[in-house]
Amino acid sequence: MQKTLQASYLSAPVLGVAATLVVIGMLLAFHSVVQSAVKVGEFRRQATLTQAQATGRCKMLRAPSARDRCLMQTLAATKAV
User: Fold this and answer.
1) CA-based diameter of the chain, in Å?
2) Distance between CA 38 and CA 44 in Å, rounded?
3) pLDDT over 60 (residue 68)
4) CB 43 within 8 A of CB 66
5) What is the pTM of this model?
C-alpha cells in the first residue's frame, strides 16, 4: 500500500505575518547601515574641518621656522590618526 503524501501548507495569514516580519527586519537593518554611514560621514567632515583650521593657523605664523614646525606637527598628528 502506498501512503498518500499530505502537503502541509502554512495558512495565508501566517505567511503574511512572516513576510511582514522579514520586511520589518530588513528595513531596520537598512536603517542601521544608513545611520552608521551618516555618522562616519559627519566624523570625516569634522576631521577635515579641524585639519583645515589647524593648517590655516599654522600658515598665519610669521616666522618661517615656526610655520614649518607647526605644519610638520599638524601633518604628524594627521598621520597618527
Assistant:
1) 102
2) 10
3) yes
4) no
5) 0.64
Residues in the chain: 81
Please, what is the Cα angle at 46 between 63 and 70, to 5 degrees?
15
Q: How buried is 13 (Cβ within 10 angstroms: 0-12 exposed, 13-18 middle, 19+ buried)?
A: exposed
- Give 29-60 pLDDT, tens digit per residue: 999 999 999 999 999 999 999 999 999 999 99
Contact by Cβ (8 Å): 51, 78: yes
Note whether 57 and 70 are within 8 A (CB): yes
Long-range contacts of 34-42 (CB under 8 A, 24+ apart): none
Q: Residue 20's CB: how many other CB atoms inside 10 A?
A: 10
Alpha-helix residue ranges (DSSP H) falling in the chain: 12-59, 64-80
